[in-house]
Amino acid sequence: MYEDRIRRPALMNKLTSAADAALLFKDGMTVGMSGFTRAGDAKALPMALVERARQAPLHLTLLTGASLGNDSDGLMANAGVVARRMPFQADAALRRKINTGEVMFIDQHLSETAEQLRSGDLKAVDIAVIEAVAITADGSIIPTMSVGNTANFVQQAKQVIVEINLSAPLALEGFHDIYVPGERPHREAIPLLTPWQRIGATAIRVQPERIAAIVITDSPDSPSNALPPDEETDAIARHVIRFLDAEVKAGRMDPTLRPLQAGIGTIANAVLHGLIDSPFRDMTMYSEVLQDSAIELLDSGQLKMASASSITLSAAMHEKFIANIEQYRERVVLRPQEISNHPEIVRRLGIIALNTALEFDIYGNVNSTHVGGTHMMNGIGGSGDFARNGQLSIFVSKSVAKDGAISSVVPFAAHVDHTEHDVDVLVTEWGLADLRGLAPRERAPLIIEHCAHPDYRPQLRAYFEEAKLGGGQTPHVLEQALSWHARYKREGSMLVK
């Protein structure tokens, strides 16, 4: 009854229940699961592993592309299944386990996980669990709405479990471009010269005998949890559009811009949404995730094509995408994340990178991951891959959080994911600071006056003036550099009253 989904007849005898497939897992194994920002993740096996853990101890090292959907990360963490996790997550329950030290979380640049597995720096994957549209006649696996690290997991896993998701339309076949780099040190250059090029296969190759089980599911991806644009994000979008328009008028790029990258989340999605009313045309994207705004730009005609590793949409946009899937076939490409985020390609294409900051300091250092410098939020994701290697590295943030109790612009970032060397432009709803070619002493006044909330500017000015008295290329008053974070922890607000 699944001949259109399992096209190699000999694999029909691998059909089994998720509960029986879960018996293949042993305590201490390393498991690679498909899934990237709530898209293309396995639906049945995570729940089956939770049940399996109730019968006997089961502690796994879990690798994915990025975050999983369907609360899988949290349910597995609460059941004790996840002992070690990488490279990214976005689940509140798992986050609590990470911040109490119960789960060891390794935060990685998303381009690096596959490389570290390939080189043996990480323990090899024992079992790969991959969601698929179908299995081809030669045994290859056609992914669903994301690729992520699945090609690498499949390449090295001793056993592969395939979840055939009937809710994923067969029309997704052909969207994927699976290219796996060769071994170092004699690897050839990746032959990708434009975002729309296809250089690989449409499915993930695997020896059929390594497919240990096939599970049938019929569950859609979790919808995106990005919020709609608001007054602040609209203002941020206007600042970015004016800046890019000035770049065009200065002759540094043409009205098609350079290929765009936008990180996951509400603010980046809202800024891209703002490009619908921009003067730019025939734009392209070379990103890691396509959100609602990317589909809106494709529909408007302003975006010519989009390349990514994942498509993560709201429920309404997902329904529209699937209903009109043929019109996107030649305009959307899904690649492995080590290709979508590859430094060589990002540098070659001259990407405009647009990512979100939790906070940044007056010299341009950006914290993307740790609240108060200690508590993990989600992870660095792919922002570092694009920030260091893109032509333009733009970080956006609302100027305050917690109803103004927290300033996103601080004297010294409590944790640094992106140093001042990798940050070109900072933007909040109040304005934009172009930091290119500026020394630290020139950056600070610009960031304070253009990006900080007006309530916090006097404190920031006072800190900078006192810091300059002590001298230094990057002036600081070390005794006060993190005092804002300490004040918030002590008094519930960074603002001096």
UniProtKB/TrEMBL annotation:
Residues 11-215 form the Acetyl-CoA hydrolase/transferase N-terminal domain. Gene3D superfamilies: 4-hydroxybutyrate coenzyme like domains, Acetyl-CoA hydrolase/transferase C-terminal domain, Glutaconate Coenzyme A-transferase. InterPro entries: AcetylCoA_hyd_C, AcetylCoA_hyd_C_sf, ActCoA_hydro, ActCoA_hydro_N, NagB/RpiA_transferase-like, Succinate_CoA_transferase. Residues 319-463 form the Acetyl-CoA hydrolase/transferase C-terminal domain. Keywords: Transferase. It holds the Pfam family AcetylCoA_hydro. GO terms for biological process: acetate metabolic process; acetyl-CoA metabolic process. CoA binds at residues 378, 382, 402. It comes from the Bacteria. The keyword Lipoprotein does not apply. GO terms for molecular function: acetate CoA-transferase activity; acetyl-CoA hydrolase activity. The active site is at residue 288. Belongs to the acetyl-CoA hydrolase/transferase family. This is Succinate CoA transferase.
